[in-house]
Amino acid sequence: MALYHNAPMAHSQEPTAAPIEHRFNPYSDNGGSILAISGKDFSVIAGDTRQSEGYNIQTRYARKVWQLTDKAVLATNGFAADGNNFVKRVKQRLEWYEHAHHKPMGLKSIARMIQTMLYGKRFFPYYVYNILGGIEEDGSGAVYSFDPVGSYEREACRAAGAAQSLIQPFLDNQIYFKNQQPEPGSQPFIPGNLPLATVLSLVVDSFTSATERHIEVGDGMEIYIVMNKGRTTDDLLGEGKLQKGMQIEELGALGEGSGERTFLVRQALKRD
Amino acid sequence: MWKQPSPANSSFNEFNTFPLPQTQRGQSSHAHHGPVGHTQQPLVTGTSVLGLKYEGGVMIAADNLASYGSLARFRDIQRLHPLGKHTLLGVAGDMSDFQWLKKELDALLREEDALALTDSHPSLSPKNIYELLSNLFYARRSKMNPVWNAVLVGGWDKVKQESFLAYVDLLGTTYTAPTLATGFGAHLAQPLLREAYEAKAGIDGNGPLLTKEEAEKVLEDCMKVLFYRDARSLNKYQIATITSEGVSISDSKSADTYWKFAEGLRGYGAQTQ
Q1: pLDDT tens digits, chain A, 272 residues: what are they?
Q2: What quaternary structure, including any partners, is listed in this protein's UniProt entry (chain A) (predicted)?
């Protein structure tokens, strides 16, 4: 991260024979990768479960993706301690909001809140890349991505973390149809309209490929699928829709529930 | 009951504490001179701590050495600290921060025990203590005044009837796993622990766990490897077991080491003998 690197000192100002000062570095990088893709009436948010520091695997199961409300899921990546504590604070703010307004916070409001919370620590930032996915008030699937100090935008898809540079170009090609040409006479491509089955296999392929080529990615994968109310679940729960080795569970409504449904799919990744 | 509000600038409080502890609230006349000093580096340190889940509990091992740099300064220090009936800390890193931590946590537990006597007050579970340590370590790192330790929390969860093993360090980094190791142990012992654990339990941990005897053997092997290769370790260590029965910490023991091969070793320098 260019932000926190001590710029190499010019030779002229290099101190000579001064004692080496050891300053406490409050940050670390815990590897891993996250990704989210939105569809017309669903959103998929995924992350691997490895937590590492340098060449050490700290644990093969640490959570990076969090269900916030019935229609919002947040993925965090970067410095795990900051990530966990940031999510804790976001959940606390969401609870306060619900007490004050007797309704859960909407997705775009959560996105704006996350921006102010991140920017609030602009001068001692949370070293965390956030991706928020879920269902917007109009029922569309949405993905918001953030940088550590709060810049954010709504997108059709986003990858972040250790394998961002491996996954994002793949997504640019498959989701945004970059470097693709529609067949002569056919409709132009519109990003964000792929069927769930296609999106799921893109997510799985992204992570299995990143696992092959990046040492900080692997062990396991958690995929959250948020569906708009009234949407069919046949393309997820139907016979033979899930790939081999996948386990699925439905996460019950957090509050009174307003019809949106959230599913969690787990799959093992290679451990080497 | 609720206290009377005290006058804004009174110089004594209701307990006649003198001098009144001064808090820095804006206009304080004799503030600190210069920046607040913090622990910027560990001084007297303990090395690796190992942790392993086994059938019916969890085992934690640490040696008895507190080093002062490369000097083996204190060779009879206990780095395993029980907290209540079903929790134990294994602490690496700065030993004065460890002593402070012990003092704070023991005080808290005394308070909790007193409450438990009069009320249906549940005692602190290993999970509670872990959460507390996580918050404490993260708060202190955020003040740029870290508690310079890496801690393994081992315990027995009475409600879930299962063992508990977790890690917290000076950055506030936290994680749980069936086998854990701090410092050099993360490089040297963790692979051996994982190999032994997965040989029986399988990679998903669903198979049978190691027996108490097997777990103890693995930990002893690991402590021996660490003694051979970690220059800040000591061949005098303790193993604690935490089960539904409670915490028990072994007497200090040594691993059998073999140095005969050293006789035949010759260095690169002049061969004078």
Answers
A1: 444 455 444 444 445 555 555 689 999 999 999 999 999 999 999 999 999 999 999 999 999 999 999 999 999 999 999 999 999 999 999 999 999 999 999 999 999 999 999 999 999 999 999 999 999 999 999 999 999 999 999 999 999 999 999 999 999 999 999 999 999 999 999 999 999 999 999 999 999 999 999 999 999 999 999 999 999 999 999 999 999 999 999 998 887 888 999 999 999 999 99
A2: Component of the proteasome complex.
Check the CA dihedral B112-B162-B62-B236 and report its sign: positive
Cβ B174–A81 below 8 Å, yes or no?
Answer: yes
Assess B116–A contact: CB distance below 8 Å, yes or no. Answer: no
Contacts of B38 in chain A (CB under 8 A): 24
Backbone torsions φ then ψ of A84, nearest 5 degrees: -60, -45
CA distance B125 to B49: 21
How many Cβ contacts (< 8 angstroms) between chains A and B?
47
Residue contact A24–B40, C-beta within 8 A: yes
**B173/A contact by beta carbon, under 8 A:** yes
Going from the C-alpha of B17 to that of each of B10, B12, B14, B20, B22, the distances in angstroms are 11, 6, 8, 6, 11
| B144 contacts on A by Cβ (under 8 Å) | 24, 26
A263-267 contacts at long range (C-beta below 8 A, 24 or more positions apart): A263/A224, A263/A225, A263/A227, A263/A233, A263/A236, A264/A222, A264/A223, A264/A224, A264/A225, A265/A200, A265/A222, A265/A223, A265/A224, A265/A225, A266/A220, A266/A221, A266/A222, A266/A223, A267/A204, A267/A220, A267/A221, A267/A223, A267/A243
Please indicate if any CB of chain B lies within 8 Å of the CB of A123: no
DSSP structure class, residue B261: G
ipTM: 0.90
Closest to B173 (Cβ–Cβ): which among A23, A24, A28? Answer: A28
